[in-house]
Amino acid sequence: MTSPDRRARALDALRAQTIELPSWAFGNSGTRFKVFGAPGVARDPWEKIADAAQVHRYTGVAPRVSLHIPWDRVEDYAALGAFAAEQGVAIGAINSNLFQDDEYRLGSLTHADRAVRDRAIAHHAECVEVMRATGSTDLKLWLPDGTNYAGQDDLRARQDRLADSLQQIYALLDPEHRLLVEYKIYEPYFYAMDIPDWGTSLVHCLALGDQAQVVLDTGHHAPSTNIEFIVMQLLRVGRLGAFDFNSRNYGDDDLIVGAADPFQLFRIMNEIVEADALGRAGDGTAGVNFMLDQCHNIEPKIPGQIRSVTNVQEATAKALLVDRDALHTAQQAGDVLGAHAALTDAFATDVRPLLAELRESAGLHPDPNAAYAASGHQDQLAADRVGGTQASWGA
Amino acid sequence: MTSPDRRARALDALRAQTIELPSWAFGNSGTRFKVFGAPGVARDPWEKIADAAQVHRYTGVAPRVSLHIPWDRVEDYAALGAFAAEQGVAIGAINSNLFQDDEYRLGSLTHADRAVRDRAIAHHAECVEVMRATGSTDLKLWLPDGTNYAGQDDLRARQDRLADSLQQIYALLDPEHRLLVEYKIYEPYFYAMDIPDWGTSLVHCLALGDQAQVVLDTGHHAPSTNIEFIVMQLLRVGRLGAFDFNSRNYGDDDLIVGAADPFQLFRIMNEIVEADALGRAGDGTAGVNFMLDQCHNIEPKIPGQIRSVTNVQEATAKALLVDRDALHTAQQAGDVLGAHAALTDAFATDVRPLLAELRESAGLHPDPNAAYAASGHQDQLAADRVGGTQASWGA
Amino acid sequence: MTSPDRRARALDALRAQTIELPSWAFGNSGTRFKVFGAPGVARDPWEKIADAAQVHRYTGVAPRVSLHIPWDRVEDYAALGAFAAEQGVAIGAINSNLFQDDEYRLGSLTHADRAVRDRAIAHHAECVEVMRATGSTDLKLWLPDGTNYAGQDDLRARQDRLADSLQQIYALLDPEHRLLVEYKIYEPYFYAMDIPDWGTSLVHCLALGDQAQVVLDTGHHAPSTNIEFIVMQLLRVGRLGAFDFNSRNYGDDDLIVGAADPFQLFRIMNEIVEADALGRAGDGTAGVNFMLDQCHNIEPKIPGQIRSVTNVQEATAKALLVDRDALHTAQQAGDVLGAHAALTDAFATDVRPLLAELRESAGLHPDPNAAYAASGHQDQLAADRVGGTQASWGA
Amino acid sequence: MTSPDRRARALDALRAQTIELPSWAFGNSGTRFKVFGAPGVARDPWEKIADAAQVHRYTGVAPRVSLHIPWDRVEDYAALGAFAAEQGVAIGAINSNLFQDDEYRLGSLTHADRAVRDRAIAHHAECVEVMRATGSTDLKLWLPDGTNYAGQDDLRARQDRLADSLQQIYALLDPEHRLLVEYKIYEPYFYAMDIPDWGTSLVHCLALGDQAQVVLDTGHHAPSTNIEFIVMQLLRVGRLGAFDFNSRNYGDDDLIVGAADPFQLFRIMNEIVEADALGRAGDGTAGVNFMLDQCHNIEPKIPGQIRSVTNVQEATAKALLVDRDALHTAQQAGDVLGAHAALTDAFATDVRPLLAELRESAGLHPDPNAAYAASGHQDQLAADRVGGTQASWGA
């Protein structure tokens, strides 16, 4: 059974936990085959932020929204930030876009043509301006560049061009900014991505400096990769900047985090708790940013995000309930099954009552999914948001 | 060295080989992130057929074009067939579309709502009409249905609904028609596809009858699946209806066939040759239909298709050059390295001279890729096809 | 919350559940790199059965032990059966061995040499004799045959030889016997296994007759295969004979079932419960045999098996607690998140109290793992079993 | 067609190429299921070296033999080195063994118990002594340590203990020595290996210093990993120390290099040639050591090694024949298909005549596989090596 002390400490940690929502989760998404729309989907950045604020309203732990430029381009970012504040949330990481210009067919930061690279670098200057206008401190860069055919381009030359481009982007940062560099094994290119793995991301971050850190998207690995090991290693070398949480069974499926393999999410959060990395770093520097990055292709967006947040909370709560003394004692003793059981006992625990208590103590409904469903908000959106064009990856 | 007899027989077989082109390869395609256009891309079915005819003109072995309904919907299919004939090609398999209607969000032939299933079945009646109008004998059905989350729907009920829907479609066929049932492990759904593997496709074909056969798309398997084994097994049970050729490194990458792993393509063609299944079946019944199904996301379409055809030809030529007496003798003797070498010796052979001879004997340029590049046709298309909307998966 | 009725029905079903233990789990196992021994490991079939009986003593749901011939070869099988009965367990499936004879280097039932095939077939006659002597009704055949290099042997000829061999083995069966045919994607051969997938196993079972059924080993699939789908499909076509339970992260890791992905095990058991296939079939015919097949390379054997049994029980209990009315209603309504939640709510439930109640109602300790650890039995074995050679896969 | 200049330069490079053979390839190997023996297999290090020398005799490019301690432990290493010299070969890398002591069940360099770690470190002192006695300069360390169950041990603590152990081993090196650190995704442990990927290996090498470099075993990655990208990246950061060549379809299959995917081997060698890393580094420092690491489970050992060497030569020859001017021009121009074709044209070339010429110019038979088969040597070994115990991984 869970000791009262551990339970109390878990509640404290859960109270301090924050999860960042992606604005694009509130627009439509899909596959190359079809993007399905749904009544009430947000049509612009303001509506996306309003929707994100709903998620925060019901969960209490999602106080920031990541923006994606140009999808969230507005004339007045200060006004957008003020609107977010009114809604009870803040602007989080600024995501650049390197995949939707016609010029990027063969690459952006790695393109053989300097003019294309310069354009891609300049786009980050715009993003840094958005950061300054909104108070964001995280510039997130996912490099979609890659090649489809062996020989199509010189892999080494692309790395060298990439290093140069990243250096120029890094130079744009203010001292309190971070550059978060994501990796991905494949898609949208299918022979060689230019940042396919954490090793490559780390090599570039080390070359850049302390403000550069790695983003781990849980859907961006080869089958059977042990993700919690990478979490541990990046924490160990001080370079885990952020998560893009989602889940997958096959490719980069971008399903609701924790939906495909809740035990994996728990193991990831266990490495976070073990390294005391759940909150901001003790020295006041930025810690790990726990962000969602998902596609609600067939399910409704706001409920999908609420479910995602509660899934992360459940995994975190279980990780916090691990009896670490028992765990470490068994590990030291070489008691394989005992140590494994110390971990799985926490996973087997039903933490829904604990999270209900957490929410009620904060004045929230104990079950955010049910509360939102009962609110009638989704129907209201469908009635209100008539006409216009629903937001999607294209805009 | 290759014996003169084997070489002569190979030339005969290569002369008889045909490869079917997909109309949609001549429109734009891409990923969920971006679809890049290019100058001169076809804008309607007529232009797609004209482009396919170019591929046949330069290779001599691509005399049929698969249509996709509704992407290739026209008012007068007989006229389209006549146009194709003028261009020197014929209409091949008719592909139905079960993924682009808004109603299909949760399934088509497997949908819980009978009205949706009926609509999806009725679409196949339209396709059968197109077959009658164009002389096509193959109705190809790729079922994109599936679920994204465990529990989302009842897997067994979906199979039963599918079996019923397929039965109704099968009943639409004329005696000379075939129903070709494709399988795919994932995408566009990410938890469970309703026809995920050859076993499921076969189970349904067996229930339907002799006119139902399996389509093997080379990109639709789990990592490390031995595809040539499946080819062998489906041939053994008399149910290999067709290939959708392409190649992959990761997911369903839809790259040019033979580009990712030419040795795999050779091993596949080796099973075909070993089973004497390269041509139409000896009893006059339809044999294996060798079709391409690819996405030329970043490379030009017509050259991409020409390259695909020549890749299949090279793999076929190598398979035909295998010294089967030596191979079988070594196999019978348990000579592991000798038998392997009998196969790889053929793969190591440079068959480009043989194929050049084949083409020249048919009055073609020995190098179709170079000949097309030198023709100026691509520039002509870019100059001619100004305005309008380029074809893509959406239309 | 779980309704009292559902809880009561779950207890009934759990009371009727049985799990079969493999004798070889009580001997040593390891990798090609090293087999580690441990004090007290069983040295012969009698000791293995005694150890298995311990697992049944503490869990109450493991009343059968699978034998493996020749590892469990004894002079008097009737005596072995009687000894098992004394210990409180019965003899379950008889497993043949087709991989340890020097003659099997290039295959057993598929070997090009009829003499080798005949020897492998004759081995099954011995196994059937063991079945008759012990009252076992399941003959389990895992075919380890395969090839390491493309071309090494003729894939089709191997299938035909296999079909012939299986037919001869099938002819040995008594009417109440079943032939359970397992499949495996790879290992011990690394190019093409001769029964690599459920489709191939099914093709052979269909050719053999109703007494032939498929065995699904949860570790024998390609990465990212949806196993519960296969469970559903085999149940649907009436050919799921048995499970070999274990868990994997990479290859055929043979870890404790439920240790790597407890949600997957739950989903598998959910398909079993959904199809009402947990117990013997209602018509009195044999149902699905739930067997373990694992390697306790580094953990102690008896505790490893107890943990395996309790993991299966926990997954079963959760599957039984699914609110199927709510699930089906949400599925019919197309409520993606609601249906998913109906499933995951059961998974999130802590079923340890329910299982404790189940055990106490049967006069057992509520926590079999703890009870066995406290019993001192393991130390007693280490003290008693001095000298001799510990059992392993070799003997 | 290949230009005469390019052909001449290719011949020069092929003349300078060396491939290192593993002593253990000449002993028996197998799977956890069975190790098959064969007549004439070597029984001790002397016979293994004699067998390796045969491979060099027929190929002319395999002048070194890696040793594995303790499998190749002898009383007098200087005598072993002298024997090798007499046979025409030299001692190459010294491989340590961290997986066969009973104490290593839970780890070696990462073990929680300092005494076990000290023992594992001390083993490397022995290896360094062997290096001094034999003139070897490469200490190769494959860490088999890992865990089977989540929670079994503290992943981070194991990294820290590993870093400390590696530091102590590094301190044992002479200035001309290198420490080559290998990585592997799984096996013999199945939850988390302690050096699972190139990133982890690199992190440790960077912490150690310039004498530490990464070993890339081509069979040690997750499915669909792009290996040539890793080759490029490790060359780029100056840390590619060596290859362990073999090939795989599924796990760490350890098949003959180039047998499973010859195009992949070609792409790897293409990165090597592109980076001018085929020979020793220009500054006199050690370059990449091209080693084989394979298991000839069912095929004869010496012919298996000869075939492996010729496969590497063929891939190298093709890489050397790439028209790099054409390749780079097409790459710069963004000519996707043209650049791809520049690569694949070289792959399509039959390089067997070139290699025959290379061998004949060195006084060798043009076909080493055929020449060895015709030599009668294998029969002679079978006749001579009667009695004794054949070498294997155990000794």
UniProtKB/TrEMBL annotation, chains A, B, C, D:
Taxonomic lineage from the root: Bacteria, Bacillati, Actinomycetota, Actinomycetes, Geodermatophilales
Keywords in alphabetical order: Cytoplasm, Isomerase, Manganese, Metal-binding, Rhamnose metabolism
Pfam families the UniProt entry points to: RhaA
Molecular-function annotations in GO: L-rhamnose isomerase activity
Taxonomic source organism: Klenkia terrae
Protein name: L-rhamnose isomerase
Top-level taxon in the UniProt lineage: Bacteria
Family matches, as InterPro entries: L-rhamnose_isomerase (IPR050337), Rhamnose_iso-rel (IPR013457), Rhamnose_isomerase (IPR009308), Xyl_isomerase-like_sf (IPR036237)
Entry's EC annotation: 5.3.1.14
